[in-house]
């Protein structure tokens, strides 16, 4: 078949064409127009770089909320080596830097995560900023800026018991004991030391600098109750992601913690008595290896909150082959069998909550497993079609997992001279390639599928985005995005959704001191479809989003009904709610106690597990054979596909018999042997063609 030159030119031009920015769903607004002029500028020094501090490139956070209650959402950025900045929203996507007058620039050398919350219950959002203290001379403390109600803040971390000097990543405020006030979970990260390597039991030995902390609010003073509540605090806790949600729908807030490196993630179920039980191994089949930011939302509209965790798997084949990712099989097995860790793989994990009983991992199926060096995932309905979309911030200045760099730095000569020459330091840095990549955004589709809209919804220009948050900054009903970038101005993505898609914004006004109703659940029904949202603001990576419950409904005109479950586990119902409005929810006086089993009914299972059968005490013992030692290019092991099993009435007595594989022979050999035995048995008349097919395998 011949193709004309004109046709060929047409295909080339179409293939090379790009979506113009004015046609993107999100348009990035230039800082000279928005006045959002914050840059998290990072400079490597002889004493502080990725060579000395492994989280040097993790960047800063961003928090969004209305600090002066004027109906416009304001923005706060944290800086690692630069002062924090607070921007007041003036409307029309224009902002004013009020940092100096507000007094929130901060006094720490290295700031990380930030959270907006009404800590003292006066109806105004306060600012809690985390810091890394004690690494290579870094000074400072976590700071709590209490809102004075006049666009100024007072730093009162010590007064509230929150002025920690740790390796802090981020924090979340929520009411874990259901007593009406906000408690706090402080997520800390570890650094590589002899104490951070070893068996998983390290997590039980508490350390002050790197161990996570649970703080109970007792009359405005936060008390460390970590140990008595069952919260791990070991030197192997490399905490990078923190999600709060009622995962099993029992009325108490649970926790999911993303841990980097060899430590497992933590899945804490709230027991309702002030304690938590960690249940990761019981509820999850596998987790991300280098778990980073996370987010939790109900994706499949069944009323149970699902989870995504991010990792560093790249789509780019060159990056994939030149970077360290999964452990060698020997190390992988050693961690599980000897050191008591859970299976971990270096890719994003999308964990679907199956009725609060267990989680099913589907990232490969859903198309969201590989987004390179990823930081902050944010689920939201950006196109207002009733399905959850997904934004992921990405990029790292230099890739420390590059094989060339690892080979260089691992040589004995370089190791001997490493601390003696600044030139060697720079040479080592130069061995690390750039990790600038595009931010990703996915459109939620049917059946847990996502389609990559990077380059269609947002620019696919490579960047270094870390912290990210969403909010309706221009009050037009759709959600905008803000990212905190390394060595580049922060990005303000304005959502320019056009059409008749309907939204519903819900602003919660609850009983003081939990004035913003953190923990509120809202369930809507429209045209037989259910959506459920829980109000928690700390999400993604080192960031917090607007304290808002937001729904998209496509082209419908009203919501049929709505259930509101308040933080005190009372419930009320509303009907025929008009869309395209901001609905202010206040608790009524005639609320009833919620029956969670009635509201969140679980689907009946088809099968029921039988714990024991008389006479069937067989237990398969797998051998230590490793396929990769013999077939280097095999994609996965096939020697552990067994044991084989056959159920059939072999003696003709009307009852099925069970044959189980006794040796570690392959499945094909087992069935071939069984087929030949049956063929020799003249009383068993089976089709000859069946055995011919088996023999040819």
TrEMBL record:
Keyword field contains Signal: yes
UniProt cross-references to SUPFAM superfamilies, sorted A to Z: Integrin alpha N-terminal domain
Pfam families reported in the protein's UniProt record: FG-GAP_3 (PF13517), UnbV_ASPIC (PF07593)
Residues of the ASPIC/UnbV domain: 517-583
Gene3D superfamilies in UniProt: Integrin alpha, N-terminal
Record keywords, A-Z: Signal
InterPro entries for this protein: Crtac1, FG-GAP, Integrin_alpha_N, UnbV_ASPIC
PANTHER family: CARTILAGE ACIDIC PROTEIN 1
Protein's name in the database: ASPIC/UnbV domain-containing protein
């Amino acid at each position: 078949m011949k193709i004309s030159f004109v046709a060929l030119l047409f295909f080339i031009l179409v293939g090379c064409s790009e979506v113009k920015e004015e046609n993107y769903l999100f348009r990035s607004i230039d800082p000279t127009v928005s006045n959002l002029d914050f840059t998290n500028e990072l400079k490597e020094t002889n004493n502080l770089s990725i060579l000395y501090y492994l989280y040097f490139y993790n960047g800063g956070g961003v928090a969004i909320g209305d600090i002066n209650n004027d109906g416009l959402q304001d923005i706060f950025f944290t800086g690692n080596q630069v002062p924090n900045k607070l921007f007041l929203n003036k409307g029309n996507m224009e902002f004013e830097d009020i940092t100096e007058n507000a007094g929130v620039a901060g006094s720490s050398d290295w700031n990380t995560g930030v959270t907006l919350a009404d800590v003292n219950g006066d109806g105004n959002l306060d600012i809690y900023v985390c810091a890394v203290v004690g690494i290579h001379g870094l000074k400072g403390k976590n700071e709590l800026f209490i809102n004075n109600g006049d666009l100024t803040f007072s730093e009162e971390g010590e007064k509230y018991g929150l002025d920690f000097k740790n390796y802090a990543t981020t924090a979340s405020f929520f009411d874990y004991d259901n007593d009406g006030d906000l408690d706090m979970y402080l997520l800390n990260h570890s650094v590589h030391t002899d104490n951070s390597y070893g068996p998983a039991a390290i997590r039980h030995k508490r350390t002050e600098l790197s161990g996570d902390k649970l703080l109970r609010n007792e009359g405005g003073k936060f008390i460390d109750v970590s140990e008595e509540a069952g919260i791990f605090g070991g030197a192997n806790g490399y905490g990078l992601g923190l999600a709060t949600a009622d995962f099993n729908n029992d009325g108490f807030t649970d926790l999911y913690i993303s841990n980097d490196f060899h430590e497992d993630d933590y899945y804490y179920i709230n027991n309702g008595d002030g304690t938590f039980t960690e249940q990761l191994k019981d509820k999850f089949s596998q987790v991300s290896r280098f778990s980073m930011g996370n987010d939790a939302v109900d994706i499949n509209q069944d009323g149970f909150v699902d989870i995504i965790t991010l990792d560093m798997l790249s789509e780019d084949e060159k990056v994939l082959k030149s970077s360290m990712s999964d452990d060698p099989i020997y190390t992988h097995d050693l961690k599980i069998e000897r050191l008591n860790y859970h299976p971990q793989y270096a890719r994003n994990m999308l964990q679907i909550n199956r009725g609060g009983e267990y989680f099913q991992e589907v990232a490969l199926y859903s198309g969201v497993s590989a987004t390179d060096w990823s930081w902050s995932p944010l689920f939201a309905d950006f196109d207002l079609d009733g399905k959850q979309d997904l934004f992921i911030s990405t990029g790292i200045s230099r890739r420390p997992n590059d094989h060339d760099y690892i080979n260089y730095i691992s040589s004995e000569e370089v190791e001997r001279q490493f601390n003696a020459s600044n030139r060697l330091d720079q040479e080592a840095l130069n061995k690390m390639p750039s990790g600038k990549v595009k931010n990703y955004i996915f459109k939620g589709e049917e059946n847990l599928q996502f389609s990559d809209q990077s380059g269609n919804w947002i620019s696919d220009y490579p960047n270094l985005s870390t912290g990210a948050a969403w909010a309706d900054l221009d009050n037009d009903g759709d959600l905008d995005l803000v990212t905190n970038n390394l060595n580049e101005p922060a990005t303000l993505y304005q959502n320019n959704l056009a059409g008749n898609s309907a939204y519903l914004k819900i602003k919660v006004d609850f009983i003081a001191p939990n004035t913003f109703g953190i923990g509120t659940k809202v369930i809507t029904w429209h045209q037989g479809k259910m959506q459920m949202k829980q109000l928690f603001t700390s999400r993604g990576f080192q960031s917090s989003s607007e304290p808002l419950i937001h729904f998209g409904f496509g082209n419908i005109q009203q919501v049929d009904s709505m259930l509101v479950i308040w933080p005190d586990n009372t419930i009320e119902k509303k009907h025929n709610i008009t869309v395209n409005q901001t609905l202010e929810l206040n608790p009524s006086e005639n609320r009833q106690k919620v029956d969670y089993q009635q509201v969140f009914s679980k689907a009946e299972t088809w099968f029921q597990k039988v714990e024991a059968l008389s006479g069937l005490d067989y237990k398969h013992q797998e051998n230590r054979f490793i396929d990769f030692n013999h077939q280097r290019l095999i994609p996965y092991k096939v020697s552990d596909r067994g044991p084989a099993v056959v159920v059939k009435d072999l003696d003709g007595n009307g009852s099925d018999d069970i044959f189980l594989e006794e040796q570690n022979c392959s499945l094909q050999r087992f069935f071939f042997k069984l087929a030949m035995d049956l063929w020799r048995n003249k009383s068993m008349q089976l089709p000859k063609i069946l055995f011919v097919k088996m023999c040819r395998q």
